[in-house]
Write a structure and sequence with these properties.
The complex is a heterodimer of chains A (115) and B (113).
Chain A (H helix, E strand, L loop, with lengths): L4 E3 L2 E4 L5 E6 L6 E7 L6 E7 L14 E5 L5 E5 L8 E8 L9 E2 L3 E5 L1
Chain B lengths: L8 E5 L4 E6 L8 E7 L6 E6 L4 E2 L4 E4 L5 E6 L8 E8 L15 E6 L1
Parallel strand pairs in B: 1-9
Antiparallel strand pairs in B: 2-7, 3-4, 3-8, 5-6, 6-7, 8-9
Classes of the chains: A mainly beta (115), B mainly beta (113).
């Protein structure tokens, strides 16, 4: 596809269940980012993948959160034992190698509601 | 991660220029300055970025102070569609986490007709 694709677009889950959120970055983009945005708040950094480097997981809020990326393609963000405070929009972005003309392209996000 | 400071909100009149300031006094020599904006109910979109020299593109201009401790995003003629949250971000280059983008709270721009 032409842009960053995230699925599902909306997810309602019961407290305590595990969820998987998927991100398909733009083909050829080596960098991939996950962010969380609670209602009315700014973007909270979660994790960053850059090429073959070890991912920067410094933003993951707890060990219930994990993310993987297969090579330079799809990434999944997994939240185990979901809590109500996990309700938010989860945004994924990708970019090419940092250089003089790179920009990050964002998907439309997955709106997660934990009931 | 180096931090940025922006005003929480600003107002502008339609068709007038808008200057959005950003302070980044802890910027390092290899940090790029990026600006993104987020329209209501959408993901952020890239606006512009630069290192040392002022930059212009079809959306905006970026004026960078000589000491690089501050920058200003300039929208030359604000339209109602420019109402959004504008984020000023520093992106590190030259290390293992090069390109990492950390968003602050941003400036909410209101454009009045």
């Amino acid at each position: 596809g032409a842009g960053v694709s995230q699925s599902p677009s909306n997810k309602v889950t019961e407290k305590g269940k595990d969820v998987e959120l998927r991100c398909d970055p733009i083909s050829g983009h080596t960098a991939l980012y996950w962010y969380r945005q609670r209602l009315g708040q700014g973007l909270e950094f979660l994790i960053y993948f850059q090429g073959n480097s070890a991912p920067d997981k410094s933003g993951l809020p707890s060990d219930r959160f994990s993310a993987e990326r297969t090579g330079e393609s799809v990434s999944t963000l997994t939240i185990q034992r979901t809590q109500q405070e996990d309700s938010a929009v989860y945004l994924c972005a990708s970019s090419s190698l940092p250089g003089t003309n790179y920009e990050a392209f964002f998907g439309q996000g997955t709106r997660l509601t934990v009931v | 991660d180096a931090k940025t400071t922006q005003p929480n909100s600003m107002e502008s009149n339609e068709e007038e220029p808008v200057h959005l300031p950003c302070n980044h006094s802890t910027i390092s020599g290899t940090d790029y300055i990026h600006w993104y904006r987020q329209l209501p109910s959408q993901g952020p979109e890239y606006v512009i970025h630069g290192l040392t020299s002022n930059v212009n593109n079809r959306m905006a201009s970026l004026a960078i102070a000589e000491d690089r401790k501050s920058s200003t995003l300039i929208l030359h003629r604000a339209t109602l569609r420019d109402a959004a949250v504008y984020y000023c971000i520093l992106s590190l280059h030259g290390s293992s986490n090069t390109g990492k983008l950390i968003f602050g709270q941003g400036t909410t721009l209101q454009v009045k007709p």
